[in-house]
Amino acid sequence: MAIVKMDKFTLLFFESQKEKLLTALQGFESIQFINLQDQELLEKNEEFKNLKKDSVNVNLSDYNEQLSKIRFSLEFLKDYMPKQSALKSIQKEKASITVKNLQRFVENSNWFKIYKDLKEKEETIVALTNEIGKYETEIQVLDKWKNFDATFEALKNLKYTKAYLGTIQKNYEISFINDLSDSAKNTYVEILGKDSQDVFLHIIMEKNDEPLCEELFKKYGFSIFQPTYEGIPQNIIKEFFKEIKTAENKISHIKENLKSYEEQYEKLQYAFDYYNNLLMREEAATNFLKTEKVVAISGWIPSEEKNTFSSLIKSTVGEKFSIEYEEIKEEEFEDVPIKLKNRKFASNFEGIVEMYSLPKYNEIDPTPIMSIFYFIFFGMMLSDAGYGLLLLFGSLFMVKFTKDKEKAKTYKLFMLAGISTVIWGAIYGSWFGDLFSKYLGIDIPYLLDPGKSVTSILLISVAMGVVHIFVGLGIKGYIYIRDGKYLDAIYDVLTWYSTLIGAFLWIGTGMVGLPSVATTIGMILFIIGAIGLLLTQGREHPTIGARLGWGIYGVYGMTSYLGDIVSYSRLLALGLATGFIANAFNLIVALIPSPFSIVLSPVIFLLLHGFNMAVNALGSYVHAARLQYLEFFNKFYEGGGKKFTPYKLSDNYIKITK
């Protein structure tokens, strides 16, 4: 299985049937429109020049407005809806409803009344919140004068004296008070409070001393406080606190009431998908061209869906339509959307490919082959059977209860990764490190001891790297042969096989004990391959000098292959790290003295091994992907494909059936 074969279609039908047909196609969910209104496309196709651009009707702005109101309502209510447990959220399946029943449900749901109610509540909460903010600001101002035990209005009702409240900077406090006392003998000064910068004063003077005092006010920058309140500051502050409490109670009551809006929340979700469907239907018209009565649409469709598609159109609009299917042309490869279709095992690894980039239409889908190597590499790096069992059963649990197909794929990926980890953990004899063999006295058979077989594991890692790279080169050769580029297959693949195999035989014969004839064969293969690279890697350049220069550079490219092969030593490094850290954690737990160990040991064991598993599982996930992206894909894979995004029904909150 691989990239789904696509065809291009062009459909003509009467505009009077557009609404009906678009509704049917939305439920079909297997076509992606081509934007015929694209200026570049119009310039390339002469037959389109006499057609007009189709446009959306007046309903579009109305649908956008309705969606905006529903979106506000959902966002506003979201925080007040009961939180589901992790298990329930996994188990929850979207409600299913037919298109006709959805329309009937939304029309009878009174969602607009719900919106108005929520908008009113939101405005009330905002108004009360602003009121609270206002009172809090007022309290901050009044708090400076809380030690003033008279009413503010009393300051204005003095017959023979003049009274002021005001502030002065701390560094002028003593000088100001002394000058005031010297200049106006009968002046009364009371310090009401201080902060980090200012002193808050209450000053009373005789009226005939007012001009003199005002001069001193200017000199020292005394800032007069002009109260706008009536009453004693302490009493006003208490009253403001009461108002804040009342406003907070009102807000709390509204929020508590919103928690009972579960039914309204569900109605809004249905309304959102209903109007979103209508909006998508209207926006689809921006891809079409038309005459006075006929609409032209074009798009991509999986080849296997053509008959179903034609039958659907016929059952929807009758015989009054014209459809034409075309095979994809080479110049269209860049534009064809990509849909992957793999068997059960490989399909779980499609997300790894998508994270890098989807293949172009003329490439091959690397998922089937990549999945095998990813499966092996992940387990070899995590390499503890105990961790593998936890990962396996945890993923199985998630797969069993999740209703989301895409999430289920991810959980299945980790389930497979767990199986691989158990296999490699059993090979290395690692079950939560050395827990069983050293601390529980249970000897479980194994094939390799990582502490004593480092060289063997390194050789296995390098051998896997060589196989991985050679498979990548083989795929490159297959693509060249498939496309009829037989010489390119020789120049860019066979020469590298000859060079690399020759180098391994020539240099490695002594290491692995092969007969001396292997050295001779290796040397011959290496020389043939190196000469081939020298003569062919610059073949695209016009001058002999450029060809020779690029040929030398091509031979130098052997060093990059060496770097790629060395990179696979991470299979050894991460595997050793997981096991040795697990062993160290077991030692830490074993050192906890009795009787504390009865309680602490199980807890610390779970915490330490949980941390080790999480960190190394993440490392295995990332580095297994890295080996695919950098060492494997760069041998044959370009990527850059665009994902197939069919015109379909909105399913943000519910599943709509035909």
UniProtKB/TrEMBL annotation:
Keyword Coiled coil among UniProt keywords: yes
Coiled-coil regions listed in the entry: 237-271
Lineage top rank: taxon: Bacteria
Keywords: Coiled coil, Ion transport, Membrane, Transmembrane, Transmembrane helix, Transport
Transmembrane segments: 372-399, 411-433, 453-474, 486-507, 513-535, 571-592, 598-618
A GO biological process held by the record: vacuolar acidification
An example molecular function term from Gene Ontology annotations: ATPase binding
Localization (cell): Membrane
One Pfam family of this chain: V_ATPase_I
One cellular component term from this protein's GO annotations in UniProt: proton-transporting V-type ATPase, V0 domain
Annotated membrane topology: Multi-pass membrane protein
Keyword Glycoprotein: no
Family: Belongs to the V-ATPase 116 kDa subunit family.
Protein name: V-type ATPase 116 kDa subunit
Organism encoding this protein: Clostridium cellulovorans (strain ATCC 35296 / DSM 3052 / OCM 3 / 743B)
